[in-house]
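Kindly review this record before class:
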Amino acid sequence: MSRSTVYGALGLALVLAGVAGCSSKKPAVYEHENFDDSGTFSRTFPASEAGTCEAARRALLSQGYIITSSDANQVAGNKSFQQNAENHLQISFNITCVPDMGDKQRSTMFANALQDRYALKKSNTSASLGVGVLGSVSMPIGSTDDSMVKVASETVTATQFYDRYFALVESYLPKPKQPEKAETVAPKEEKPAADLGLPEPAPSAQAPAQPAPEAAVDSTPPVASEPAPVPVSEAPAAPLVDDSQGSQPIAPPIEAAPIQVQQEAPAPAVQ
């Protein structure tokens, strides 16, 4: 086999190894970040930012979390879990509340839970002891110390985990005030003074005016008044008439008889 053939086979092997190495390379973690609004870490509530953060704080306290910091729009707390003798787990909550842009009575809560894992690690330490009289003589002294060391840290991304927490926060939100209904009070019946044991009021000095008695009906029939007699004018004396044979008096005129007015019978009186 010639030398050129050996070099060619070696170069081909290196190229194939490089291709295999590139194909087995895992994608970077940041390539999974799509920045889509999935709603896993946020939820909108019908309350102000202060009321929402107060409900978030009470929800953490009800589950045994230790509140490390609390503000009108931020809350932080953590809780420890012991899985076994050598592993320790801690969950830290970081909550931020912001008001709604269009409605001050609504706010959005952003929650983030961080999971830290700790493991028990043993470390060997040594020390030397020098004796001045004997010269430079050193004696190694070994010891072992146990300490918890953080070995992993990861953000919790489980949707069910945040859904359960947001449901608990909603139960601690302040309830809206109901309008008070005006109560209708029935009027109290006034009891007479005799029932209450009080003296009766004195009668008024001025007696009420009594109605005038009706006039008695007179049963006697009215007497009809007689009509006044009609005066009869007296006839003037007869003048003398001039006659050729002499003046002779003219016979006096006959006096008119007085006019008799017939009287009507009186009407009977109403009993």
User: Anything to note?
Assistant: The first strand starts at residue 42 and ends at 45.
